[in-house]
Amino acid sequence: MAWGGSRERLHAGQVRGVPVVSRRRLQQVGGTIAALVVLGGGLLWFKEHTPADQMAEMCGGVLPVDEMLELTGTTALGFDHADDDLELDTWHLTAASGVAEPEGLSVACRTNTGIEVFIQTADGTNDPYFLSSPRDDALPLPLGAGWTGFVMGSTVSVLLDCPDWGSRQGGGILVTAEAEGGSRATVARLATVAAERTAERTGCGGETGARITRIPGDAGGRKVTTDEATGTCATLRSHSRMRETAAPGTSPLEECVLGEELVLRAFYGTFISERDRYGEYGSFRKPTGDDSGGAWGSATDCQGLFGTAVYELRTIDDGDHDLVSDPLTSAERDDLRRFAEGSAERHGCRGLVLPGA
User: Fold this and answer.
1) pLDDT given for residue 93 in this prediction
2) 3-state percent helix, strand, coil for the chain, nearest multiple of 5
3) CA distances from 219 to 137, 139, 141, 192 (A)
4) Do residues 168 and 155 lie in contact, with contact meaning Cβ atoms separated by under 8 Å?
């Protein structure tokens, strides 16, 4: 039986209504797909190896990338020639004796551009005193913005209390960050963001502060007379000229420089040097005393992680004052008492004891 209209001729394997594709065309399409696959893999490799992505993995992935890029002077994608020389390193720290740290603590990382970050428990896997030890040319400036910590020179220390953690878990989180040449506010954001992200990952329920945009105050402190002092040197009378910082009671280190030769310092909790070796009074060994370098007292039961405190009056490290031939005056010892009383009150301490009391 004859059908009307033209008859369509089908090639082997062809489905009616689907156009025939030549072998050459198939080869072209296949080559394009293969190129896209290779290109996609290359883009994935490139993305995983940019400075931004490498920085996002440092110190367990808790560092803020924007601040790291700013402090290292590199670009996110690594197009700058200087980016080729960037080196990053991360390592884990040994837990403090008797401390069962939450997973993810303790860790440290560095770049070859001068950035170092240590993230550990508040009890201190590494002695925090030596990570941010006092200097005569830079006083500890309180962070502000609701954070507990300080900036001293190019170093920032952040202390975050974790109320649900006991001493067995380390009590809280301590982040220390150093970046030579970086702005104080940027280094402070690096440390505070790392502390906040570490708290989220480890289940620390501590209260965090706000974003830090500036750190007020000169690195060397504010020069004041006895009548002008309102911060760490307030109420002191033995020297007519002093250097001080603000004193909101949120810094685990406080200082007041008396004249050119003496300095008053307050150390709280983990910032008392060598506690892991000598106990709660660290290198001071006992609650109160005198030696050839000065005098000190202490307090206990301070608020939260401040714990035990030590207050000292000593000669400046590079000074010429010899306390053996020229001992502390009664007025200077009175200033040790006033300094200790003011600092202890700000930090919620009890049981203050001083030499000669």
Assistant:
1) 86
2) 30, 25, 45
3) 8, 6, 7, 19
4) no
- Give the orientation angle of helix 184-202 with respect to helix 65-72, to 10 degrees: 150
* CA nearest neighbour of 224 among 211, 234, 216: 234
- Of 200, 180, 199, 59, whose CA–CA distance to 117 is shortest? 59
Compute the average pLDDT of residues 166-172: 85
Q: Is the pLDDT of residue 2 over 60?
A: no
Which stretches of the chain are DSSP H helices? Answer: 23-48, 51-55, 65-72, 128-131, 184-202, 275-278, 330-346
User: 222-225 and 262-268: which strand pairing?
Assistant: unpaired
The model's pTM: 0.82
- Which residues touch 339 (CB under 8 Å, ≥6 apart)? 232, 233, 236, 256, 264, 266, 311, 313
> E strands, the chain, where?
88-92, 107-111, 115-121, 141-144, 147-152, 155-161, 172-179, 222-225, 241-244, 253-258, 262-268, 289-291, 294-302, 307-315, 350-353
Q: Which among 234, 225, 103, 212 has a CA at the least distance from the CA of 158?
A: 212
Q: Are strands 289-291 and 262-268 parallel, antiparallel or unpaired?
A: unpaired
